[in-house]
Amino acid sequence: MESPAPALAVHVVLYRHTADGVATLLRSVDRAVAEAQDQGSLGSATLLIGDSSPVPVLSPAQVAGLASTVSRCGGERLAYHYFDRNRGSAGGNNDLFRCSGSELVLIINPDCYASPGLVRMLCAAMDVPDAGIVEARQVPLEHPKEFCRRTGDTSWASGSCMLIRRQVVEVLGGFDEESFFMYCDDVDFSWRARLEGYRVIYEPAASVFHDKRLDAQGQIVAGEAEVYYSAEASLMMAWKWSHPELLEMGRHALLASGSEPQRRAVEAFDERRAGNRLPTPLDPDGRVSQFIGHDYARHRFGYDD
């Protein structure tokens, strides 16, 4: 007897986004869900929106309007959770994990828009032995990290758009929100999944448009919070994944020539270390972790080459 198609929960964590932008995203996701359901690769779907903004992005009337405009994962299957504090990407998704028990979870950034075949292609890639996480291709700026052309296996999956097997969430206990607020929560999650024997797969046939802000030179524009949390995450990654030499090199570089937010990140990390509030280091033999310069995987190309 053929097993039923898996159920899906879609996670979107907001922070100061617009109601119009959310509506555009949800319509694109609903269309991708419809294609996967029509092809028989997906069962029921639920949309879970978590809001970390200082004030709610969506009013009750707007939530009701969105629920009525998405046909495949709307109505009572659309839920809006206002956190009333900034939970970050890791904490926000952890809160949403507890809101459903679906076999699959799709995490998608609010500045991404789904292609029609996104969900169908992600589900197809997940339907292989030991697959735990499947990552979509971002356009127009594809992430340059290496992947196996035959199997799709890669070092880690970007939280901008990735499909996760529920079993992986249960085994890992979700994201490490105590260590990673905004950045590298996806890298850490992927590496912990690989330590448990799950595969992390990149599926270039599944694509999302990721609306990145670029400067005149084509470089991604980063705000002060992004600079701070990316510096904090780089130090935490070196600590948690058993590379003390990289940690000290990073500390010294940020203190010597970093910006003011980066120096504050070093000070905050040092305070945590002095207070014994850091996680137990993992993977001392480097079985899954990859530290290639400032990257966490070998790259196929660079945008500044």
Give a count of the beta strands, DSSP E runs of length 2 or more: 8
State which percent range the strand residues make up: 15-25%
CATH class of the largest domain, please? Alpha Beta
Strand order of the largest sheet: 3-2-1-4-7-6-8-5
Determine the N-to-C terminus distance.
53 Å
Return the structural class.
alpha/beta
The CATH architecture of the largest domain is Alpha-Beta Complex
How many separate structural domains? 2
What general form does the structure show? globular
The rounded Rg comes to 19 Å
Query: What about the largest sheet?
Result: 8 strands, mixed
Write the CATH fold name of the largest domain.
Spore Coat Polysaccharide Biosynthesis Protein SpsA, Chain A
Mean pLDDT: 94
Q: What's the number of helices?
A: 9
Low-confidence stretches: none
The helix/strand order is EHEHEHEEHEEHHEHHH
Residues in helix, %: 25-40%
